[in-house]
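Field notebook, page 373. I keep forgetting to write these up properly, so this time I am using the form the group agreed on. The chain and the ligand, pyridoxal-5'-phosphate, are recorded exactly as supplied. Prediction of the bound pose follows.
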Amino acid sequence: MSSGLTKLINNAVPGVAKLHPYLPGKPVDELARELGLDPKDIVKLASNENPLGPSKAVLTAIEAELSELTRYPDGNGFELKSALSEHFALTAEQITLGNGSNDVLDLIARTFLQSGTNAVFSQYAFAVYPISTQAVGADLNIVPARDYAHNLDAMAAAINAQTRVVFLANPNNPTGTMFDVAEFKSFMSKVPEDVVVVLDEAYSEYVSDENYPDGIELLPLYPNLIVTRTFSKAYGLASLRVGWAASAPEIADLLNRVRQPFNVDSLALAAAKAALQDEEYLAASKELNSKGMAQIIQALEARGLGYIPSKGNFITVDFARETSEINQSFLKQGVILRPVANYGMPNHLRVSIGTQEENQRFIDVLNEMELDG
Ligand SMILES: *Cc1c(COP(=O)(O)O)cnc(C)c1O
């Protein structure tokens, strides 16, 4: 490297060189190329995607939009915001649309964090929180988990004068753990009003627990709360990249200033609106998930394997030993799971809930596997 380039690299925002890039689940086509397999014989249970495939209403909405591809999308997302505000009893001024909710998380970091400040989040929390925080040169204030779950008391205690943002994932990924409404309210009562609390509810649609704190319902109580939701999981639009935040209008106004003007494309806007209105699809997603969760848990218990009880559309399995070889064996059999060693969980693998047949493929490979010694 030339000395100029070395200097240039060293001038990067502090924290960027140290951040660990996001490790996505292995794509089906990549494994097919590597092992010479037919993509149709591969089952991907690695990215918490919706196994139902896209809803018909979504495909129709996209088709209707195709003739307008030469135009820029509506940078304000008027129609999607109207649909969201009606559906969730919000005003459009409370909404920030993102290119996936990851984009919204990034907007929050860019709006409130900088060098000399920190973001609080839990050990084993979603990998995007450290990335977005370090990318703007802010410090990570990571709080040890309790039984793989957020320790909210410890998180409140970790907030200091430099803290600007707290990231909470409920349910959390990759652990599937949930905190309840009483725990959340107790936590909020300890957070200074000038610290932003981000409640990441990417999996909220799957939760049936009556004590689940619905962030959107709780928004009126907490002016410093930002709730993020996504169309990537239960709504089945992971590829199109649509997520959103609900917050006080004053916060949304800031986020919308930082946002790229056309961060959600027109196909995604149309698809998300259609997905929001397709209640049958959402209900089918939830039902498939709860049946699949029961199917996989039964198999894990039969095999004597531990797991972290999950409220999401995935379950993280404890193999009680380092899992690289186990993961490789699954890959060789055409089953893609998600290693979580990068989260500090080398003995676990995360399994997304698939269709009944996909789950059975996982179970069959698991049951043929030697796990002793
Ligand atoms: C999947 C996921 C998201 C959603 O990401 P998108 O960018 O909306 O696809 C957000 N938070 C958590 C914890 C997730 O697991």
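OBSERVATIONS:
- The longest strand covers residues 163-169.
- The CA atoms of residues 24 and 108 lie 22 Å apart.
FOLLOW-UP: compare against the apo run.
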